[in-house]
Design a protein that fits this description.
The complex is a heterodimer. By secondary structure, chain A is α+β, with helices and mostly antiparallel strands. Chain A has 29 helices and 22 strands. In chain B, helix 1 packs across helix 2. Classes of the chains: A alpha+beta, B alpha+beta. At the A-B interface, helix 2 and helix 3 of A face helix 2, helix 3 and strand 2 of B.
Chain lengths: 867, 113
């Protein structure tokens, strides 16, 4: 029989049952099914199915569809009120737990808020251009003969010109180069201008606005300039200046043909003035005429609607093929990059302005997520642990008729309320740590402000609700699962082990995070200190390096030498060991392999002043240094000369010139700790010097600096005195380590706070719930220490597991990030590995024992009396 | 109280129920309308009409027997109440009246007496 009656499409049947009014369902479904069977017999299963589906769909009409929550609607608002009140009561009743939850969440949510405002700011860059989908930048890859490839964000202006004239498929091509630089005299003072050169297509490609001037007619003539609003106000104090002329201090004149709105903050292209590119093209500067000059020019193109990237790429490849034969040392290839991929970017060289690397964005997000999860764990843990206390409420609600959905909603609502309170506190914290965060990192400092817009406030609220949901999800699910019969029989009949395993795992994860971060901080700190105090092989203490700013060396030296606190003066072309470098090949006699050697130019007093130790020969003499060179021991060795003494008087070739070795100094670290010691040569009188090294011996450094400043002003009134001690230089050089260190200590602080707060909650709970057990044990003769061990035992196991996970992970991260490039790094011993974890374990144990002590000290009679 | 106006489709449904006598339930009503009135309607649309008619008190319904074809669910039989019959009469008389007012020539053009 059953074979005669296929059943209608189950999905549709269920759908119908779901939306149909209960009282009409039997009749209607019966009718539909009867018809279905008739249709099946007459037309077969296919048609029957089709007709049935159609009927179900047509059933969707007001007379058939259930009234939405018709029976619950009436009391929804009052239940909502009730949930809110109960949530408030439960928050207020357990002040300790609530404040642990709220503060824990608030601290980590502050990190979340930082991440949100960070992200929304990073991704708002360049979004104001209307044709973003068609706006591309041409980028260049430089292929050296040895196979190395360097990726540049730039492209030659020549490329732009050729694309515009000899190729089709571009709606507009705007080549841009920096270099409209100079001072404009305004009354007594002069105003520095930093602008770009480009052509008329600029305003077609980009959505920068002109306040006055016709965008189709500007930048067509030589010596035309468009000023931004701000620049115009600075120079003229007004903006109706079209037609007037500005004159740079070097004599060049530009006619103003337009006033542009200031480029928005969130634009990777920034300028104070725009000059017409034809100004440079007329002068046949190499930057506009050479295919190979790609260093500081950019080409932006607007592709037509319905463009094909392949087509454009083929054109670029063809252009490269035609032009590459002109290049000697390398070849170039070009590619396209959409404007949205410029900021945050992929770390190409020579960006127009500072570009936030994509990895930085990712790491901020990951770190924020870690901290956030950690705080959510706290809420989850504490709520789970205390779920027993709420069990009766759940039981009664269920008996009275609450469904799982209602209870779930109630507990989620409670969590969301806690997180909304937290977000308010976290916003205060956010404002406190904002400036710290901004100064953490060069990229962040240069590109972001972290101002909060209305939209970001909106994100904050959404974020708080999401976090509340996340934190409350697990406990809510557990609590709604309670069986009313068990609960109402008495708490003892519920399994107390509810979620214990999960709780342990969560605590372990939290502590692993804290320990990991703490260990990283210790390691980074040691490495940073090591780098700062690294013995470079010459003296750096009390050496003040003055930036000459193109003034005459001897004049400045002369001024400084009059100050008594200056005990030594020397000068050099580059500052040693601060990251800048210059190198070339040293050739010796008929040896085939030459040695790559770093170099810079010094004066005769440099060795003495900087404490370089001469092994053989002499240093430079005053005034008579042409063709003489001082080398390091390592170079002597690599050239194959047996001893430093034999090297004296030998001739080597360097920078296509012959030099006589007059002295050999001990090896020193020219680079940073990321570089091996390498061969080095000193020349004298070959190059201009840009730095003066002063040896200072002073008891009152402020006073000395003031007299130095005065001496400086005797020579140069226009530029301020700029000087840094070597220590400050090293801090700058190693600021990457110090930035990581700061970030890790910030995170470690937060992670530790959160986990200790959570632990405190757990300890309080454990002590409270076992108060009777403790009392009985005490009566039976347990000592205080017995009880302490009893209550901390479980935690200690968790801590050890956490440490076992955290320390190797931290070590791995340390190797991968902090000392990834370093040749010289600290030896890691027990303390570097263990101290972070140990510290946390000690704090944790103190936290636990503070609660245990309280429970254990109380009079057992008190605890046992009330039953 | 929804008005007691009898819509055109509702009138058809009432007539069909009457013509089906004591076998008027969803499936038969729908099929009768399809065959006799030549109108294909969905069961959902019929449900709407039946609900309206019941609200107006023109029909009543009672549960009937079940059948394996219906997955064991019971039928619901509809019968027209006296009020329903009266409403039908009203509708018919209004129409007749109107019919009678129309000059014959307009209705049967070309028919010359």
């Amino acid at each position: 029989m059953t074979n005669d009656r296929p059943s209608p499409p189950p999905l549709y049947e269920r759908l119908f049952e779901w939306f149909c009014k209960e009282n009409a369902f039997d009749e209607l479904q019966g009718d539909l099914e009867e018809e279905f069977q008739q249709n099946y017999r007459k037309h077969g299963i296919k048609t029957a199915n089709k007709l049935y589906k159609r009927e179900v769909i047509r059933m969707m009409r007001p007379s058939v569809i259930k009234k939405l929550k018709s029976n619950r609607q009436s009391n929804f608002s009052s239940m909502f009120r009730n949930y809110t009140i109960v949530a408030f009561r439960s928050i207020a009743r357990n002040r300790l737990f609530s404040s642990i939850n709220i503060f824990g969440l608030a601290i980590s949510m502050a990190v979340g808020l930082l991440a949100i405002s960070f992200l929304s700011e990073v991704y708002s860059y360049d979004k104001f251009h209307e044709n973003r989908d068609r706006l591309y930048r041409i980028v260049t890859d430089l292929h050296r003969q040895n196979g190395a490839i360097a990726n540049y964000a730039t492209a030659s202006i020549y490329t732009g010109t050729r694309l515009a004239t000899d190729f089709t498929g571009f709606e507009a091509v705007a080549p841009i180069t920096k270099g409209l630089r100079g001072n404009i005299a305004v009354g007594e003072s002069s105003i520095p201008i930093n602008g770009i050169y480009t052509n008329n297509d600029f305003f077609k490609v980009f959505s920068f606005e002109l306040l006055s001037g016709d965008p189709s007619k500007v930048l067509l003539e030589p010596n035309e300039v468009i000023l931004t609003e701000t620049t115009a106000r600075k120079i003229f104090n007004r903006i109706d200046v079209v037609g007037e002329v500005i004159r740079f201090e070097n004599g060049t004149q530009y006619k103003i043909t337009g006033i542009a709105k200031d480029p928005p903050n969130y634009s990777h292209l920034k300028f104070e003035a725009i000059g017409s590119l034809i100004t440079l093209q007329e002068k046949n500067r190499s930057v506009t005429t050479d295919f190979g000059v790609i260093w500081s020019s950019y080409v932006y193109v607007l592709l037509p609607e319905g463009y094909s990237l392949d087509q454009v790429q083929q054109n670029l490849d063809r252009l490269a093929e035609e032009e590459n034969p002109k290049l000697v040392y390398w070849t170039l290839s070009m590619g396209l990059q959409n404007i949205d991929d410029i900021f945050p970017g992929d770390g190409r060289y020579n960006q127009f302005s500072v570009v936030m690397p994509k990895e930085k964005v990712t790491s901020v997000v990951i770190l924020a997520l870690i901290v956030l999860f950690s705080a959510c764990f706290n809420y989850t843990n504490l709520s789970l642990a205390r779920s027993l206390k709420r069990a009766k409420e759940v039981g009664v609600r269920k008996v009275v008729g609450a469904r799982k959905g209602n209870l779930f909603f109630q507990f989620i609502l409670e969590a969301i309320m806690v997180s909304l309170v937290s977000v308010v506190i976290s916003f205060l914290l956010f404002n406190v740590v904002k400036s710290e965060f901004l100064s953490l990192d060069l990229y962040i400092e240069r590109t972001l402000t972290l101002d909060v817009s209305t939209q970001v406030y909106f994100y904050f609220i959404i974020f708080a609700i999401a976090i509340g949901f996340l934190a409350g999800l697990f406990p809510s699910l557990i609590m709604t699962r309670f069986k009313p019969v068990n609960i109402l029989k008495g708490a003892s009949s519920i399994k107390t082990g509810n979620g214990v395993g999960i709780r342990k795992v969560l605590v372990a994860i939290q502590f692993a995070l804290s320990m990991g971060f703490a260990t990283l901080v210790v390691m980074a700190y040691k490495q940073y200190n090591y780098a700062l105090n690294f013995d470079l092989g010459f003296e750096t203490e009390n050496i003040l390096n003055v930036d000459l700013q193109f003034n005459d060396v001897d004049l400045v030296k002369n001024q400084f030498s009059r100050i008594p606190e200056v005990t030594g003066i020397s000068s050099s072309s580059i500052l040693a060991s601060t990251g800048s470098s210059q190198s070339n090949w040293v050739k010796y006699k008929d040896r085939l392999d030459s040695v790559n050697s770093y170099t810079f130019d010094v004066d005769y007093s440099y060795f003495k002043n900087m404490g370089h130790e001469l092994v053989a020969g002499t240093g430079f003499d005053e005034g008579n240094d042409q063709g003489k060179i001082v080398v390091t021991e390592l170079l002597v060795k690599e050239l194959g000369i047996n001893s430093p003494f034999e090297a004296i008087g030998e001739t080597i070739s360097y920078f296509q010139k012959n030099w006589t070795i007059i002295g050999v100094v001990k090896d020193f670290h020219y680079g940073t700790i990321n570089d091996e010691i390498s061969p080095f040569v000193f020349t004298s009188g070959r190059q201009d010097h840009y730095n003066i090294n002063l040896k200072i011996s002073s008891t009152n450094i402020v006073e000395t600096m003031r007299s130095l400043d005065e001496a400086w002003r005797q020579v140069d009134q226009a530029n301020a005195f700029q000087a840094k001690f070597y220590d400050e230089w090293f801090e700058l050089t190693y600021q990457e380590i110090s930035a990581s260190m700061k970030i890790f200590s910030f995170l470690a602080g937060i992670a530790i706070c959160i986990s200790i707060l959570g632990l405190l909650g757990m300890a309080v709970y454990t002590a409270e719930s076992r108060v009777k057990e403790l009392a009985i044990r005490k009566v039976l003769g347990a000592t205080l220490s017995n009880l302490l061990v009893l209550l901390s035992r479980n935690f200690i196991v968790i801590f050890i597991i956490s440490a076992l996970v955290a320390i190797p992970a931290a070590y791995y991260l340390y190797q991968e990030t902090i000392v990834a490039d370093a040749i010289y790094s600290i030896e890691l011993g027990f303390w570097e590995f263990g101290s972070g974890a140990l510290l946390i374990i000690i704090i944790a144990l103190l936290t636990i024992s503070s609660q245990t002590m309280k429970a254990a000290r109380s009079n057992p009679a008190e605890s046992l009396r009330n039953e | 109280m929804k008005g007691s106006h009898l819509g055109e489709f509702q009138e058809v449904v009432l007539l069909v129920i009457l013509s089906l006598d004591d076998n008027a339930y969803g499936v038969t009503i729908k099929q009768e309308i399809a065959e006799k009135v030549n109108r294909s309607i969905s069961r959902g649309a019929l449900h709407t009409a039946l609900t309206r008619l019941e609200e107006k008190g023109f029909i009543t319904s009672e549960q009937g027997e079940s059948h394996p074809d219906r997955g064991g669910r019971k039928k619901r039989y509809y019968t027209v109440t006296n009020k329903g019959v009266a409403a039908l009469h009203d509708a018919k008389s209004i129409r007749d009246q109107l019919w009678n007012q129309i000059p014959r020539l307009k209705l049967y053009p070309g028919y010359d007496k």
